[in-house]
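Long-time lurker, first post. I've been practising inverse folding by hand and with some scripts of my own, and I keep getting stuck on stretches where the structure tokens seem ambiguous. Below is the full token string for one chain I'm working on. Before anyone asks, I'm not after the true native sequence, just a reasonable design that respects the backbone. If someone could post their per-position residues I'd love to compare against what I wrote down in my notebook.
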């Protein structure tokens, strides 16, 4: 099973919010602050983050072998919280892509401590026969904490953890996440979350976020 990000997550805090909450002065430009926020969020968020959750709204595609489709008809939808299932597609035995009618599947659960939802066929309706090959079944879904009435619904401790990660990166130095800086007429920066930056952020927020961590089996 693999999970791919189809539409990247929306930011869960703005540069203005981080600037206000962390008392960051004008000496830190907005583009640097945006990069810091993205770096702190990336360590936590989605398929590449250690939190096991989708934070900003994003579209994910979960890919399974057709054999799993037959042997385990109930699919766990990773990286909660689930917003909606967009589509369920599969390659039939002839290799032709097909789309499952939404009336033929149902979402189970999605609430509780982990918020992990499961996808299953409707009662009395088995999954169609799929090609027994890698990634022949693709489930596309939207996940993350939605924006409601213009406000993020990401839990306050998670938002605070991202702010804390930004502060930690500022304190230890931007060289931890600056990949390249060229000045040839126009300044061009390329950013990356280094292993050192990831450790800084992880150490700063691990205790704060432990109740929200989802362990994937």
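-- Answer (accepted) --
I ran through it position by position. Result:
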């Amino acid at each position: 099973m693999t999970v791919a990000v189809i539409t990247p997550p929306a930011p869960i805090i703005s540069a203005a919010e981080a600037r206000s909450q962390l008392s960051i002065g004008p000496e830190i430009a907005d583009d640097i602050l945006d990069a810091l926020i993205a770096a702190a969020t990336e360590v936590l968020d989605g398929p590449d983050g250690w939190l096991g959750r989708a934070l900003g709204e994003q579209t994910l595609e979960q890919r399974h072998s057709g054999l799993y489709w037959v042997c385990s008809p109930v699919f766990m939808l990773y990286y909660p919280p689930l917003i909606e299932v967009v589509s369920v597609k599969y390659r039939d035995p002839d290799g032709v892509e097909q789309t499952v009618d939404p009336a033929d599947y149902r979402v189970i659960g999605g609430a509780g401590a982990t918020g992990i939802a499961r996808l299953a066929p409707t009662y009395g309706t088995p999954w169609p026969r799929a090609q027994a090959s890698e990634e022949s079944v693709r489930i596309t879904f939207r996940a993350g904490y939605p924006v409601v009435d213009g406000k993020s619904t990401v839990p306050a401790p998670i938002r605070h953890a991202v702010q804390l990660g930004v502060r930690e990166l500022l304190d230890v130095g931007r060289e931890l996440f600056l990949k390249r800086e060229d000045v040839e007429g126009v300044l061009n920066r390329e950013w990356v979350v280094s292993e050192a930056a990831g450790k800084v952020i992880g150490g700063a927020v691990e205790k704060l976020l432990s109740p929200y961590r989802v362990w994937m089996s």
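A couple of notes from the structure itself: Residues 156-172 form the longest helix (17 residues). The chain is about 25% helix and 30% strand. Happy to go over any region you disagree with.
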